[in-house]
Amino acid sequence: MVALEAQRFGGQLYNETRVAAGYGYRLGQISVGGRLEMLQVSIEGLGSRRVALASLGGQVEVLPGRLTLGVYGYNLGQARLASYQDERVPTVLRAGLAYRPTAQVLLALETEKDVERPPTSRPGWSTGRWGPWPPAWAWPR
């Protein structure tokens, strides 16, 4: 799978522009992907700075249909925006687990670590029917 992205955020005083390309591949129960990104940050009165970023991720179905493990690393090269106070784009590492005890219940846990901050964890759950929408019994069809 190939992905392209173009994004702009902000206004005249501060803005970010991103252009990225990614590639993902699935081989059986394992999926891997990578992304290259060009980020430009502009601040009125200070100018703008452009940096290249690289990200990698992977996912494995430990127990197919039941337990999935995923990992992701953003800005693995620790790109520097400015030498003043060694300002860098955040480097973020994430790992997550998703467990389906039944077809209607999903339990999830993600842990995130910005290399300059303490780790955080986020649990989550979902209940309900997964699959084609609308379900076969929905009316009108």
From TrEMBL:
Name of the protein: TonB-dependent receptor-like beta-barrel domain-containing protein
Lineage of origin: Bacteria, Pseudomonadati, Bacteroidota, Cytophagia, Cytophagales
